[in-house]
Design brief:
The structure is a single chain. The chain is α+β, with helices and mostly antiparallel strands. The chain has one domain. 43% of the residues lie in helices and 31% in strands. It has 3 helices and 6 strands; from the N terminus they run H-E-E-E-E-H-E-E-H. The strands form 2 sheets. The chain has a 4-stranded antiparallel beta sheet with strand order 1-2-3-4. The protein has a two-stranded antiparallel sheet with strand order 5-6. The N and C termini lie far apart (42 Å).
């Protein structure tokens, strides 16, 4: 239990869903906002904002390729090879997992943009 509490002190959560979590790491009481840690499906990605946006675009493109209407597996297959911002890594995901990843990435981007907007307004 102590280890979980200790880890929670070392991160600033951005967004989460049933499939994963996104957060910024903290170092010496300072939040490191240059990159976002995404963790889902026993996998972690440490991405810049630009890479996160590229990943969102890639996910959108993959969602457009999801044609399950006549398929006997009905969104339960591991049909898709999802490209990631890291050229060497692709993920085999079902359509349901793809939707969960989409929500995680889009929710993370939204929360980051909202925080940046509010921080900008508060400075004025």
């Amino acid at each position: 239990m102590f280890e979980i509490i200790q880890v929670m002190k070392e991160i600033e959560q951005i967004y989460f869903n049933d499939f994963g979590v996104a957060f910024h790491w903290k170092k010496e009481q300072k939040v490191l906002k240059s990159k976002v840690q995404l963790v889902f499906k026993e996998t972690g990605f440490y991405l810049s904002k630009e890479e996160l946006n590229i990943f969102a675009d890639t996910i959108d493109a993959a969602c457009g390729d999801a044609h399950c209407n006549g398929c006997e597996f009905k969104r339960k297959c591991h049909k898709f090879l999802l490209k990631t911002p890291l050229q060497q890594i692709d993920l085999a995901v079902s359509v349901n997992e793809l939707m969960q990843i989409k929500d995680l990435v889009e929710g993370t981007i939204f929360q980051i943009q909202l925080k940046e907007y509010l921080d900008e307004i508060c400075q004025n």
